[in-house]
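Lab notebook, bench 4. Still working through the backlog of constructs that have no structural model yet. Next entry is a single chain of 125 residues. Request: give me the structure tokens for it.
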Amino acid sequence: MAVSIDMTTTATTITWDPQDDDPRGHLVAAIRNGRLEDALTLLGGAPAVDDQGDAARLARSTMALVTDLERRLRVLAVHLRAEGMSWPQLANALYGDPARHSSARRVYEAGLRILGTQPDPADHS
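Model written out:
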């Protein structure tokens, strides 16, 4: 993995190579616009937010990051399938349950739509 996280008792450092690991600038954008910080705040179970505007910003930022991650995960599913991963293997990778073939197929097909391609009718093995 290219992105690494080093944690000590006093600080956490996230490291990556912008040219190799973030050529389109998605990580930088998520940091600069506060989405990563907001999502981590929410994930960490931040105390209740008193200000409705702050709560709405947390929700909006986190949803935007979730949407970006879902899009990339769908494209990754297409890549994994193209590399020969079976439906049970893909279902296990996505859900930890090899029996969830239909769910894995939906993720895969959504990835194909993102890429502007159609599923191969023969690809049901």
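Notes after review: The first strand starts at residue 4 and ends at 7. The CA atoms of residues 22 and 28 lie 8 Å apart. Flag for follow-up if needed.
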